[in-house]
Amino acid sequence: MTVSRSILLWASQNKWMKSNVPKLFFVQKALKKFMPGEEVEYALSEAVSFQQREIGTVFTKLGENITTLAEAETVTNHYLEVLTKINNQKVSAEISLKLTQIGFDISVDAAKNNLGKILKSAEDKNNFIWIDMEQSAYVEKTIEFYKHFRKNFSSVGICLQAYLKRTKRHINDLLPVSPNIRLVKGAYMEPPEIAFAQKSLVDKNYFEIAETLLKFNKEGIARIAFATHDLNMISKIKEYSKLNDIRKDGFEFQMLYGIKPAEQIKIANEGYKIRVLISYGSAWYSWYVRRLAERPANVWFILKNLVAK
Ligand code: FDA
Predict the structure, then answer these.
(1) What does the alpha-carbon distance between residue 200 and residue 182 come to, in Å, rounded to a whole number?
(2) What is the pLDDT of residues 266-279, one digit of tens each?
(3) Which tops the pLDDT comparison, 295 or 103?
(4) What are the pLDDT digits (tens) for 59-68?
(5) Which residue has a Cα nearest atom 3 of ligand 1?
(6) What CATH number is given for 36-283 in this structure?
(7) What is the domain partition of the chain in residue ranges?
(8) What letter would DSSP give residue 195?
């Protein structure tokens, strides 16, 4: 891990910075590149434009590690309302959420109850819910939670992180429930005992897992999303699927709003399925700094906004 990435990941968790940095006008201005607005209406409006270009979307309300059950209930009700809005406006938008947003840290039973309500509503509306993967301390618990729900709901997916050395094993654990998997590289600061520290090793693991998932998908078992902006990785996945006669609609790509938008259109025009994840909400600080850590050059973009006052 580079020093700049480590510093930014540390900053993403720093309490003082969390309450002060979001007030800076130039940070707010730069944020627009990654987030169209704090209210869900901005995401809905962007989703309509994406849909015209054959690109689906995934919505996520920012905020993690909430501390009261009342907050967890508010988030749950919010997602229920969003599912209704998506349904009424006939937009091709799914939802991605963090378990710690719906009470996982406070009461597993409450989180189960909240997720159950969201999944029931999604299934009734023919929609789909993705469960994000958070820091390593949550991984095993999230997988157990997912297995529990996947037995009763078909429209639920889980995110797995290629930087974790144990992810290959998790795929085997998940196979019996026919999982829907979104594969990412991983966005948090993790110790080298459990996570590959070198980017080349993360990339190698990502592709090896991608091959396994595609083999698995050929048997028609799961939905697979490759969530990455790594163009070399995307080419390798396309190449592998061609060589192995896997149909273009047998898997999908996912990217984040504002990152490589021209590539997103290109992928859709080539006939592959693609969704763009649009974030919204006021609790954007930690999430935004993780985006900066993925490409520290983004910090210059913020500073440019300071100069271009
Ligand atoms: P990599 O970091 O190698 O980047 C490849 C190239 O993409 C870079 O060279 C750069 O050009 C560009 N790029 C990447 N990030 C950029 C940025 N922020 N700004 C500008 N350019 C950038 N993580 C996690 O731990 N749990 C989760 O639940 C999720 N969920 C999730 C959903 C979706 C839809 C996506 C796309 C990503 C996530 N992630 C995530 C984040 C993921 O783990 C990872 O941190 C980022 O996707 C960056 O990794 P890449 O695969 O893009 O590769």
Answers:
(1) 20
(2) 999 999 999 999 99
(3) 103
(4) 999 987 788 9
(5) 230
(6) 3.20.20.220
(7) 36-283
(8) B
